[in-house]
Amino acid sequence: MTTSALRLGLRANAAQFTLLVAVNALVGGLLGSERTVLPLLAEREFDLTAYTAALTYILAFGATKAVTNFLAGALSDRYGRKPVLIAGWLAAIPVPLMIIWAPSWGWVVGANVLLGVSQGLAWSTTVIMKIDLAGPARRGLAMGLNEAAGYLAVATTALATGWLAAAHGLRPVPFLLALAYAGLGLGLSLASVRETHGHARREAATHVTGTAEQHHGLSTGRVAALTSWREPALSAASQAGMVNNLNDGLAWGLFPLLFATAGLSLTQIGILAALYPAVWGLGQLVTGQASDRYGRKPFVVAGMLAQAVALAWIARADGFAGWAAAAVLLGAGTAAVYPTLLATVGDVAHPAWRARAVGVYRLWRDGGFAVGALLAGAVADLAGVRAAVWVVAALTAASGLLAWIRMYETHPRAARLPRPDVARPGPRPVA
């Protein structure tokens, strides 16, 4: 099919879009297989008592995924989206097997390096492919559906592995579910997913902005500079994304240990580990679409501040009910932020270099896992888990205030402004 014959929009591409939603659910399920079990595995089977040492797997995952996100954007622009997606699934196959057979903690860390590669390639590419298919009008809804599928799968798998661990032990049964996800994801990607790079070229051919430099010729270094610090909305999104995933790294690595010290059962820990990403996932079905109507900035600022309040609540609470309520608020705040930040990048970046901009944004965002592992582990070793939660709560509040100050509204309908000149950033537009 020629580029000119391709159509943009969710309705025109419903079958492929739905398939990609299912594929991303499998990507999320692979990640969710670790959420309940791995922190407890570190403590109970590998006798890791120092929090910094126990969180090395999150550090390895986050650092690797961040770098791979960046590469995924560049590779998908050069070689196409589908080959990058398939490479991500090939990297996923050994992950559950390495954890099942691990004779030492180093094997688990190595498995999470591969998990970071897999998630960076596969999740980044499903994001890029959905942006390609959706076109500009419904980008927030597209990202809401994508991220909802991924994080609902994280939640249901975290809950399922908690039950499996309670019934059958921490290994190997919970990780057999992850192996099934990887095999199914690889099979669907090989057999049924179609290339979407042509849709991006189709949008680029009709995209109207300022200078020719905006359409073509931006180096990867230029794109990285714009997304990281030069362009106000892109840089605000990058810092908010990093802090958001710093929160998630804290929740992944330390919350199960905090709950265990309070005497909660494996089933209760699994419920709490699932509740936060479940609300996060479901909420994105609403927030992504709502940001198409009401704008991106209100959801980003309110979501970061809500996460800060939720983390402070978790630091003060001391029981299942209090932690469950705080997990709901944390999930709601994250749902407000997650698809909206991706939609913001899609709003500002030109289709010719949008995949690279998404890669740079996700480099910063998932670098938050590594920063969170180092920061939360160090503070927890020095002053306890609750102190680490308080520190992250303060950082999250600061991130929300920074987004409020620096970010402008990027959705054209909400802003009632022409698109910003991202090739030559100037003063922040006034909405």
UniProtKB/TrEMBL annotation:
One of its GO terms (molecular function) is transmembrane transporter activity. Keywords: Cell membrane, Membrane, Transmembrane, Transmembrane helix, Transport. The chain crosses the membrane at residues 12-31, 51-72, 84-101, 107-128, 148-167, 173-193, 250-279, 299-315, 322-341, 387-405. GO terms for cellular component: plasma membrane. It comes from the Bacteria. It is found in: Cell membrane. It is a multi-pass membrane protein. InterPro entries: MFS (IPR011701), MFS_dom (IPR020846), MFS_trans_sf (IPR036259), MFS_Transporters (IPR050171), Sugar_transporter_CS (IPR005829). Residues 17-411 form the Major facilitator superfamily (MFS) profile domain. SUPFAM superfamilies: MFS general substrate transporter. Pfam families: MFS_1. Its main location: membrane. The keyword Cell membrane applies. This is Predicted arabinose efflux permease, MFS family.
